[in-house]
Amino acid sequence: MFDQLKQTLGGIVAIPDKQMEAFAKIAKPRDYKAGECFITENEIPNKFAFNVNGLFRYYYADQDGNEYTKGFFPENTFISSYSAMVQKRESYFRIEALENSSVLIVNYLEFMKLFSEHECWKLFLIKILELGYFIKETREREFLLFDAMTRYKSFLSAYPGLEKRVKQHLIASYIGITPVALSRIRNKMKT
Asked: What is the pLDDT of residues 107-120, one digit of tens each?
């Protein structure tokens, strides 16, 4: 678990060995069963996690129980309700395990102590926030300018192989269409 974390962190920014050891001390392993939530809406989160193995999705639910998938987070990604955590307010969405998953959970306040001790954590956070911003900007552009087929192709490109791991209705929710419309798109792409 920690070797995988070290490799992923090292791919983002150079982390000195002592800092990596300090991070490993505050990262606690935890398993989630499929369907279990890492964070629920209305929860005030105080943690983030590194997804070692498995798959999570972020989603909103309206008053009628309709779900709107915000994103998918496979292995080697960080999961959090970041703005809620930083603002110490309730999360607007859930983070749910779609598969049995293993994560390393980090308490935000403990991470902020590391953050204040070494420059590498500032660079790490900047890189993670930049990535999140790029993803958000891309999603907004797709919804404003692209048709459903183009959004589906973008999903396939952004998440290779994920269409085999995620139920069709969740993919449809992610690209903003019904499962029936997604089925039509998939049939068109086969011909």
From this structure: 999 999 999 999 99
Give the tokens for residue 40: 């629920």
User: Phi, psi at residue 38, to the nearest 5°?
Assistant: -75, -45
Which positions ≥6 away from 33 have C-beta within 8 Å?
Answer: 97, 100
Question: Torsions phi, psi of 182, nearest 5?
Answer: -65, -40
**Torsional class of 162: left (φ above 0), alpha (ψ -120 to 50), beta (otherwise):** alpha
Q: What is the DSSP letter of 187?
A: H
Report which of 102, 129, 95, 80 is spatially closest to residue 5, judged by C-alpha positions: 102
The sheet with strand 56-61 has its strands ordered as 37-39, 94-97, 56-61, 67-73
Report the pLDDT value the prediction gives residue 162, as an integer from 0 to 100. 95
Q: Compute the distance between CA of residue 107 and CA of residue 109 in angstroms, rounded to an integer.
A: 6
- How big is the chain, counted in residues? 191
